[in-house]
């Protein structure tokens, strides 16, 4: 009888050691399908936790499938990681607010530096092996808008969107302005890029970011999502994805 009891205990321990705990499954690279971002088993956002989906900022230009235009791509020219999506919209294409909110930054007065100054600032990023926030926000984003959406997109996190490299911003879109989903807030361009510094019209596009804040920090779309899942996970954020 004692032998049988010991055998049952051994079998139970063996079986339990083979069963992976839920947290291990959640943190594995292959189990992140449907996640908007994933930090750890306590900090993440799954598409099922969205209270509202958002619209595309560029009506006829959907989320690109090319990974270099998506989050997590290396940006070696400035020693940083891409934290947004580059929408291939042409020069002066109307850009829309993806969701309603309050404008907290709108810098239509931004002027590009000359190409020599631009390159000098990039050398600074090379020496530091990172892109300082001041250079990124006040030089490389060009004319840009930041909108606070509060907790309207998901109750889990405060969300903020960034629209960069704009050619122009309407005068009425200024800090403190409330915008509705679908409002035209600016027009695509190349400010903040090397082409903008050269004063030409090449390379126009919309660089767009969405960030998620909680008491512990700020997270970006696609953070820690493996490349093979990135596109399929991201498009679940949008209600009108167009390829």
Describe the fold and architecture.
By secondary structure, the chain is an alpha+beta fold. Strands 5, 6, 7, 8, 9, 10, 11, 12 and 13 form a nine-stranded antiparallel beta sheet that branches. A two-stranded antiparallel ribbon has the order 1-2. Strands 3-4 form a two-stranded antiparallel ribbon. It has one domain: Distorted Sandwich (Glucose Permease (Domain IIA)). A hairpin with a 5-residue loop joins strand 1 (35-38) and strand 2 (44-46). It is 23% helix and 26% strand. The radius of gyration is 22 Å and the shape is globular. The model is unreliable at 1-27 (pLDDT under 50). It contains six helices and 13 strands. The chain has helices at 2-18, 22-27, 115-128, 133-140, 194-197, 227-234; strands spanning 35-38, 44-46, 74-75, 80-81, 85-87, 94-96, 101-106, 143-150, 158-168, 178-179, 184-188, 206-214, 217-220.
**How many distinct beta strands?**
13
**The top level CATH class name:** Mainly Beta
Mean pLDDT: 88
**Quaternary structure classification:** single chain
Which topology does CATH recognise?
Glucose Permease (Domain IIA)
Helix content: 10-25%
User: What's the CATH superfamily, by name?
Assistant: Glucose Permease (Domain IIA)
Work out the count of structural domains: 1
Provide the low-confidence segments as ranges.
1-27
Looking at the structure, what is the overall shape? globular
* Count of DSSP-assigned helices: 6
CATH architecture: Distorted Sandwich
Order of helices and strands: HHEEEEEEEHHEEEEHEEH
Sheet with the most strands, sense and barrel status? 9 strands, antiparallel
Distance between the termini: 67 Å
Strand fraction: 25-35%
The secondary-structure class comes to: alpha+beta
Rg result = 22 Å
